[in-house]
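FORM 7B - TANDEM STRUCTURE REPORT

SECTION 1: FIRST PROTEIN
SEQUENCE AND TOKENS:
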Amino acid sequence: MSGAPRIAIVGGGLGGLTLARVLHVHGIASTVYELDASATARDQGGSLDMDPESGQRALLHAGLLEEFRPLSRPEDGELRLLDKDAAVGFRIPAPEPAQGDEGEERPEIDRRALRELLLGSLPEATVRWGHKVRAVAPGAAGQPTLTLSDGRTVAADLLVGADGAWSRVRPLVSDADPVYSGISFVDCLLHDVDARHPAVAELVGRGTMFALADEKGLIAQRNGGDRIRVYAAVKAPEEWSRSGLIDPADPAAARKRLLDLFPDWDEGLRALIADSDGPLVPRPIHALPIGHRWERTPGVTLLGDAAHLMSPFAGAGANLAMLDGAELALALATHDDLETALNAYETPMFPRAEEAAAQSADNLTGFFHPDGLRIACDTFTAVTSGGEAR
């Protein structure tokens, strides 16, 4: 773009940081306003598989693909689908180290490691830590303004909402709100699994395991640092996971209440909860309406979950957020006119996100159907020819 536009990015997650990085590659400055006090202020979540056509493409535009590879774990790409007796119904093996075209792999990487890679590639002053956005306004002549929690205001030529499910920026372009999906996760971690929990490590394998039955599930995922992250998934009212289960003052009782929801499940599967370390964290699953979009709003746009929040059952959220960030940056670098650039970014983003959101919603409904394991096996069989069904 001609001149030096003032670009304010609200949210320092993977999408916002990818946008800032690709802008930096093209010599365009931006400022990221992040609520967290530091990069280590909270847990960044589990592992991601980087899709060649979205996450890896974004890293290529960011000039970070080669730095990404040694941080990733192709060997953790196994998928297992189990019933509640721990019998394997379907398996996709992890890729061999030298197998196939490297660009076709979906290697795993921890969110924390990926975020650190992006942060380390930015000029030091790009991210403003501990900057909570209290309000946003459209401003005069299409120049939006931010009001920070300390009362300061910031004017921008472009305001990008990369601030997730409960975006402060979204109301400037849309009146849509996330809707509870009917499914709640409770997540926990097991540490030093190969030494301390070898049976669990063997059950989960080298990647991700879904155990599905009775319209509920136990999902376990290998993370770096010899950890396994566990998500217990149940159908429940939205308030249940907060008020009906988790008591921070009594984690043992909370763990027992969660185990009581899986009474006749294999003891090895129940050990994913019983042997976990640290707190149980409730995560109700929300989504924006499928096909969420907005009319072109001068000086404002959204990316990632702020634009197209969906359940995790398409494995697309972080990949799409990063692709959004990269393509928005490329549009801004290519077009002299800001509104032309924003239109060029949003036009392909909307249908791409709609397709992924529809798949995510279908999978959520199917996996937590009474016949969820069969539906999940059929789903993964349809998308891969490398699976092994029992």
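SECTION 2: SECOND PROTEIN
SEQUENCE AND TOKENS:
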Amino acid sequence: MDDAGPPGSSEQIWSVFFDFARRYRLAKREEIRLLMLYGPTASLRDLLANAQRHSLIPQPTSS
């Protein structure tokens, strides 16, 4: 039995540029990294597992 969830959820193939990067508001650098890693398309599961979002709020630095 397949535990991946409903058909089409995480196994759906997404366009890295048009779908995923825009929907999850990835920085251009991260979008390029994912394109280099997977090419123009990848499964949602792979993209979610490997995408890195950077906060728009500056993090405090330790003194």
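SECTION 3: OBSERVATIONS ON SECOND PROTEIN
Residues 17 and 32 are 9 Å apart (CA to CA).
Helices lie at 16-23, 28-38, 44-50.

SECTION 4: SIGNATURE
Preparer initials: ____
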